[in-house]
Amino acid sequence: MRETERPASSDRHPLFIPLILVGGLVFGFGLGYSHMARPEVVLDFLQFEDLGLLFVMFGGAVVSGLGFFVGPKLFDRAPLTGDHYERRLKSFDRNVLVGGAVFGVGWGLSGICPGAAYASLGVGNVTILWAIAGMFLGAYAQGRWRSRSTATSSATAGAD
Amino acid sequence: MTDLVPLQLAADLFPNGISRYAVGGLLVGLGAAIIYLGTGIAAGASTFLESTLSYVSGQSRFQRYVASRDWRVVFTVGIVLGGAVYAVLFQAGAWTTDVQPWRLLVGGVFVGVGTRVGKGCTSGHGVCGVGSASKTSIVGVVTFLTVAIVTAQLVSELGVSP
């Protein structure tokens, strides 16, 4: 997996962690500004009462797509890790559909997804800790179950 | 008179306008692009759940994320702080949701399972994956968006609000 190929924290570039923090800050500020950090706004979108959220996902994908396009043209390798630029491509299998459907039930019921939940905590929404606790519970349950099943069969592809 | 129809339609579909959504979305993409340009990492928000569990659980499924778990905590702290900066600048004090806790908790469990089994969430698939023109991510987004729309409308029909 790519994750395990990364250099140990001791020989990381000194700007690696600061850059991650800045990226997260901009990302979280955007989630706050877009109001996607508010479950009510997501639920309004899913109930077709305000379609504005389309612009959040579309706008986000356009800018990140620009990054994916420009990165390899600007540098040979990423300056802070020396890694090659790769697009985010995951293998397709039944899990994408099953997991996507389960995620959809949760998103439609709660109006919250992981990134928006963290940003929601930032805007002062302590009630969202219920959702974050639920996400950890769910991630733990599937991890336990899949750790057991991969111990018997061979390992499956990674997730992001 | 006829050119008022599209205006009325836009007001119905976008009662809060589009600028806050478009600007916010561009910034979300910019945050992901900053990290990608500097490090080559296409960061998603949901891996944090499993990578953080590796601090407390020895399960092989979580231990595979040991190498990235520290910076994923930093990424998440950044997202929380970014939301806080927004709140300080544009929000009069803290904002809290009226969505009922049981919906958040139960929905959260489904999100936690689904995002990890499905290989990504709204940021991993929706922003980075779609930005990569990944067919897997596009199928993932269409799947979770469709199911979420059906779920939200069903729950609303059952009279659950908020």
Ordered list of secondary-structure elements with their pairings:
The complex is a heterodimer of chains A (160) and B (162).
Chain A: H1 2-5, H2 16-33, H3 39-46, H4 53-74, H5 94-110, H6 114-122, H7 129-152
Helix pairs in contact in A: 2-6, 6-7
Chain B: H1 4-13, H2 19-39, H3 47-53, H4 60-63, H5 69-90, H6 101-117, H7 122-131, H8 135-157
Structural commentary:
The complex is a heterodimer of chains A (160) and B (162). Chain A has 160 residues and is mainly alpha-helical. Chain A has one domain. In chain A, 64% of the residues lie in helices and 0% in strands. In chain A, helix 2 crosses helix 6 and helix 6 runs antiparallel to helix 7. The model of chain A is unreliable at 1-5 and 155-159 (pLDDT under 50). Chain B is an all-alpha fold and 162 residues long. Chain B has a domain at 97-162. Helices cover 70% and strands 0% of the residues of chain B. Chain B is built from eight helices and no strands. Chain B has helices at residues 4-13, 19-39, 47-53, 60-63, 69-90, 101-117, 122-131, 135-157. The longest helix of chain B is centred in the last third of the chain and has 23 residues, at 135-157. Chain B is globular and about 60 Å long. Chain B starts with a helix and ends in a 5-residue tail after the last helix. The model of chain B has no long low-confidence stretch (mean pLDDT 95).
